[in-house]
TrEMBL record, chain A:
Phosphoadenosine phosphosulphate reductase domain: residues covered: 30-256
PANTHER family according to UniProt: SULFATE ADENYLYLTRANSFERASE SUBUNIT 2
Domain of life: Bacteria
This enzyme's EC code(s): 2.7.7.4
Entry's Gene Ontology molecular function annotations: ATP binding; sulfate adenylyltransferase (ATP) activity
Family listed: Belongs to the PAPS reductase family. CysD subfamily.
Residue span of region Disordered: 280-302
Protein name as annotated: Sulfate adenylyltransferase subunit 2
Organism in which the protein naturally occurs: Haliscomenobacter hydrossis (strain ATCC 27775 / DSM 1100 / LMG 10767 / O)
Lineage of the organism: Bacteria, Pseudomonadati, Bacteroidota, Saprospiria, Saprospirales
From TrEMBL, chain B:
Domain of life of the source: Bacteria
Pfam families: GTP-eEF1A_C, GTP_EFTU
Enzyme class: transferase
EC number(s) given by UniProt: 2.7.7.4
Species this protein is from: Haliscomenobacter hydrossis (strain ATCC 27775 / DSM 1100 / LMG 10767 / O)
Lineage: Bacteria, Pseudomonadati, Bacteroidota, Saprospiria, Saprospirales
This protein's name: sulfate adenylyltransferase
Domain Tr-type G positions: 6-219
GO molecular function, one term: sulfate adenylyltransferase (ATP) activity
Record GO biological process: sulfur compound metabolic process
Keywords: ATP-binding, GTP-binding, Nucleotide-binding, Nucleotidyltransferase, Transferase
Amino acid sequence: MDFNYNLNHLKELEAESMFVLREVAAQFENPVLLFSGGKDSILVTYLAMKAFYPARIPFPLLHIDTGHNFQETLDYRDELVERTGARLIVGSVQEAIDQGRVVEEKGLNASRNFLQTAVLLESMEKGKYDAAIGGARRDEEKARAKERFFSHRDEFGQWDPKNQRPELWNLFNGKKNIGEHFRIFPISNWTELDVWQYLSMEGVNLPSLYFAHQREVFERDGMLLAASEVIQRRPTEIPFETTVRFRTIGDITCTGAVKSTAGTIDDVIDEIAASRVTERGTRADDKRSETAMEDRKKQGYF
Amino acid sequence: MDYKHSELLRFTTAGNVDDGKSTLIGRLLYDSKSIFEDQLEAVQKASERRGEEGVNLALLTDGLKAEREQGITIDVAYRYFSTPKRKFIIADTPGHTQYTRNMVTGASTANVALILVDARTGIVEQTRRHAFIASLLQIPHLVICINKMDLVDFSEEVYTTIKEEFEKFSYKLDVKDVSFIPISALKGDNIVTRSENTPWYGGGTLLYTLENVHIGSDHNFIDARFPVQFVIRPNNDEFHDYRGYAGRVAGGILKKGDEVTLLPSGFTTKIAKIDSHGGELAEAFPPMSVTVLLEDDYDLSRGDMIVRTHNQPNVSQDLEVMICWFNERPLQLNGKYAILHTTQEARCIVKDIRYRLDINTLHRDVDDTTIRMNDIARVVLRTTKPLFFDSYRRNRITGSIILVDEHTNETVAAGMII
């Protein structure tokens, strides 16, 4: 008999993530999956489908809608919900602004990214969720490199990097006091390239924003931002049309595009494999300070 | 790029403070072209702001504010790089003794441990401690990197002396596969490319070793163990009577038609089907996550275990365990803790502390048995219900436990069943 019981690295990552998702369903009473419409939360949703097949995903999807989304993202989200029969809950940043619960930033670099945290925590409290599953990866950012699969948060949703629970073998300790919750990161060990290679291997389709298309953009601090009425432009920031794609998808105001002709998933893989900058190199929200992500996470960002 | 056939290797790094761990990781990432320009630029800027000369590669791994302030590594960080052959996950763990628990954390899932030794000082207390923890945690492969060879003129004699000293010391340890590499992390000797400075060294570079070390046998493929994690019941028209047991294979190989015994009930039945989202599977092996369906309709729940009838684990409420204590509050003799083992959860009482181990001398202290943070001890636990387990030496998944403080919910100990 040929003894070849080896999983390739993508299948091993898949097995690990499915295990984590099943632990969440088993250990928590009321988990929720944070869905942004980006490739990482799409991957987590796909892995959840696998983990609980042929049953439905046993937790709802929660989208924190900044009101400044790309339309393509919203279309994709609605189609996915329809196809999988998942339950969708939307937390609206616009509504929170209108009701005066949060105050919008002003000025040129105004972003709703920061407001997302408040609305996320509000939505979690309202839905009494005790675990929020997110698509964050450790290779994204240096503070995220320190994250656990099961990330404990206090009653204010805060992360304390000095007081994390050690994670040993595959024994995840999800015990908590009332009012506390966990953030769960099933794809912690995936890199950007792993995500693309896996989505290609599995034939998962993605929002069109990830592939090369014509778009009106303008340049700011070396980044290409989409020309949109939600971003204030300086008179010198003159929009022009070019062929771009997005490496990450967030709020329009802080998501930079890259010049690219990659039209298929395999083109994208080749492009990323050769790229000399990280995917978060296109994110304005990370460039605010040396510890921008760590600071946001301490406040309850995911 | 042939990513469809690449394997995953997890390794951890250990070494004394200033032995050059961060530099080594920085070098591996840099020479394998895994550092991106914007990361390097950020590190360059941060180094400048701190008034440092040159680029401090350690800032690539020390990402937290407090770590940068103090210039030390507080917590485990995970780094990634890949070559066409393998994808690597590095658990970058702190070298300070007060953070031994983090080394244990990083080591628990590693295939390989890299232990750094400064060529100028040779084997020190910390080297023995790290090697011992690696052996205690049964990391299958040890690679001893004798670093800073540039500072001892790439002397073969220095290398051989350290190698022999380590070998003599490691006879007392339970390690199976050890290799030695003379390197300079700072200059890049024998990291990714062979060094011209060590013509007397016949072995491979560090990267070559990491790419080629045999990890296919690191899992247990002998003893079939399937802890039930979650029961899948779709309750819809199409899958009306579907009752699937979801879990991750912890050992052995499961096949359709295999005769199995269900624990704790002891009922015997057969595997009717191994299911996945992609369709039925002929067999399942570690570390796959699958769903098992049984021929007879027995009621199983989370924490139960499916095993081969003629190869069963130990079933007992009494465990002998080597533990590493993680918490500031010492272990309480006769204290009660929650115990997590595979997908099972129970409570336990610490019946006896056999001895506290001095990991520097491997001396067993039976008189002073106060177990404080970072101590390693042999203890006896009595659980509220029977656990199904193997010895840790036989299976790292079914042989490991953690203890949780029931008041604070903190994970207070990691344990390996003897």
